[in-house]
Design brief:
Elements (H helix, E strand, L loop, with lengths): L11 H15 L1 H7 L6 H22 L2
């Protein structure tokens, strides 16, 4: 996967801001934070279940 950011007029700050936003939208920032430390399989399973429940609640909220 690659993320492209084009910098206009040597405005590096705007390019960094755009890169961070794109990383957050892709979920890359969250994944990097999770991979920083080892996660036990039981903790990983519980986290995945919580995330799935959250997605399900969110979907149900918009389907009403």
């Amino acid at each position: 996967m690659s993320i492209n950011v084009f910098v206009k007029d040597n405005n590096i700050e705007a390019g960094i801001k755009l890169l961070r936003k794109k990383m957050q939208m892709d979920g890359l920032k969250k994944e990097l934070k999770q991979r920083e430390f080892y996660e036990k399989p039981s903790v990983k399973k519980k986290r995945k279940q919580r995330e799935a429940a959250r997605r399900k609640r969110k979907a149900n909220m918009y389907n009403r």
